[in-house]
Design brief:
By secondary structure, this protein is of the alpha+beta class. The chain is 32% helix and 19% strand.
Length: 166
Amino acid sequence: MQKAPSASWSSESSGRIFGRADMRIDNAEHPRPGFRAIAEENVPNRFETFLLGDGEKKVTEEPDTRVQSASVFTFNREDHTLGNMLRSRLKQSPHVLFSGYKVPHPLFSTFELRVQTDGSLTPRQAVLQACKDLVTDLGLLSREFTKEWELRKMVGDNVDGGTNGI
């Protein structure tokens, strides 16, 4: 009797995992031989989703004509990571009335960020300030992480049997 395939597949050769890592089947168990090869052909290399093409802009701004002091920014070759960080940082500004983002299609690394301000600064200025604040915050996070990592290495904290407490 043939075993029922699991809900997701993985590829040992390419390192790509489709679904959970503990739910693996090999080609012999899949009802459609060659399915995995077809699925892997359609998946772009991870780095290609973040490289800009010739003449492609990273960010474009489209003023929203329906609402005063609002714009929609389209970020090319970016994903939820940057979208969510910008949205949450913009919400912290007292001059921003609304900030939200959406990913138009899950297969394309693009998101749209809509920003509305109270008029004391433009949406473009608000996004630029949020970007500067994020760079500062991430630099601080990097320094603090590196400092803690180096301290743990110096102390030799072997909590997990050689993993330096991690």
